[in-house]
Write a structure and sequence with these properties.
With about 140 residues, this protein is mainly alpha-helical. Helices cover about 50% and strands about 5% of the residues. The protein folds into 2 domains: about 1-35; about 40-125, Orthogonal Bundle (Muramoyl-pentapeptide Carboxypeptidase, domain 1), CATH 1.10.101.10. It contains 4 helices and 2 strands.
């Protein structure tokens, strides 16, 4: 009887290895990539416009509800000034209204709608130029 149990255990282990582990790896992978992207904490000029940036100066950064920084301020100011259907206070706090505005931008440009600001949202949206007499523009 132990021989049959051992064979069944081996079959079960092979089944788990073949079916379950690849699913776990697939589900875990996006979180790892997301975690590797730095948080936006400051602002910096890119192509003549103020944009959120990470502390290392990279424009490839993320932020979402609960963030509070200069980066949020630059996002809010561009959302408020470049889009007539969005009105925001520039309070540097990424709250429900900022999330709602980001969702609106993501919908407008056919991006995944998660309410989180990141590189794809940055590349599509309009930005307030550093020289205020210029019109809002994309900066890539």
């Amino acid at each position: 009887m132990n021989g049959v149990r051992d064979v069944n255990r081996i079959k079960m282990a092979a089944l788990v290895t073949t079916l379950v582990l690849p699913l776990v790896a697939t589900v875990a992978a996006p979180g790892a990539a997301f975690a590797a992207t730095p948080q936006c904490t400051t602002g910096n000029v890119k192509n003549g416009a103020w944009l959120p940036a990470a502390s290392n100066g990279s424009f490839t950064c993320i932020m979402g509800e609960g963030a509070q920084s200069d980066a949020v301020y630059w996002l809010q100011s561009s959302l408020d000034q470049c889009y007539t259907d969005i009105t925001l206070d520039w309070d540097s706090k990424y709250g429900p209204q900022t999330r709602k505005a980001v969702l609106k931008i993501q919908d407008k440009y056919n991006l995944d709608e998660d309410g989180v600001y990141g590189p794809k949202t940055r590349a599509k949206m309009l930005w307030k130029p550093a020289i205020t007499s210029e019109p809002c523009k994309t900066v890539g």
